[in-house]
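Example record

The entry below shows one chain as it appears in the dataset: sequence first, then structure tokens.
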Amino acid sequence: MAIEIVEVTELRGRAWVIDGDTIDIAGTRIRLAGIDAPEMDHPHGRKAKWALVNLCRGHEIRAVLDGDFSYERSVATCYLPDGRDLSAEMVRAGMAVDRPRFSRGKYAGLEPEGIRRKLWRCDARQKGRMPPRLPD
């Protein structure tokens, strides 16, 4: 009997959301391709996670694996049943930013104006690198 080894290039299933740019489908950790969302200890981290939870809730997610790995996670472009790209939806919602090094700018035009500054300032303030905003 011959054993055939098949490369998995696509996964489908319910997603367990880990954070704003990471899901788990059937035990496989998946990094959403081309974007970066705030970490859970960031002021917007929980908001980003819940935005992704709300997008995935009740849906089978299709993950097209690209063969890359990031911090022990498979990198994939993930789609909702209606064909919407989860990365694009997270960027459009202002819960993640485009990572041009990995996306070639695919999502840059979807970023709400000022979102990078907003996320950076929040993170800097939390880590004590920027004074809190003083009242006018």
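Notes for this example: Strands lie at 10-14, 16-19, 22-25, 28-32, 35-36, 60-70, 73-79, 97-98. The chain has a mean pLDDT of 85.
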